[in-house]
Amino acid sequence: MEGTGVGFRKDLVSKLLQLHFTNSKTKVGGDALRLMAELLTIFVVEAAVRSVRQAQAEDLALVDVDQLEKVLPQLLLDF
C-alpha cells in the first residue's frame, strides 16, 4: 500500500485525534500521525476483507453492513 496514495490524510487523522483529546493544547508529531494513518488504513482494509469473506460464507454476491456487523467484534478484539 505504501506509495500508492491509498490511506488517510494526515490532516484528517490529526482532526480525529484532536476530537478525543481533553486538553486542546495537546500536539501530535508527524511520525505519530503517519503511524495512526497507517493503523487506520490497515484496520479499514482488514474490516473490508473480513466482510467479504463473511459474505462469501453466506453465499451473498454483495457485502452489506450486516456482514461488517458480524465481523466487527472479533476485529476489535484482534486490534
UniProtKB/TrEMBL annotation:
InterPro entries: CENP-X (IPR018552). Its main location: nucleus. One of its GO terms (cellular component) is Fanconi anaemia nuclear complex. It is found in: Nucleus. Keywords: DNA damage, DNA repair, DNA-binding, Nucleus. GO terms for biological process: DNA repair; kinetochore assembly; replication fork processing; resolution of meiotic recombination intermediates. GO terms for molecular function: DNA binding. It holds the Pfam family CENP-X. It comes from the Eukaryota. Belongs to the CENP-X/MHF2 family. Heterodimer with CENPX, sometimes called MHF; this interaction stabilizes both partners. MHF heterodimers can assemble to form tetrameric structures. MHF also coassemble with CENPT-CENPW heterodimers at centromeres to form the tetrameric CENP-T-W-S-X complex. Forms a discrete complex with FANCM and CENPX, called FANCM-MHF; this interaction, probably mediated by direct binding between CENPS and FANCM, leads to synergistic activation of double-stranded DNA binding and strongly stimulates FANCM-mediated DNA remodeling. This is Centromere protein X. It comes from Odobenus rosmarus divergens (Pacific walrus). The gene is STRA13.
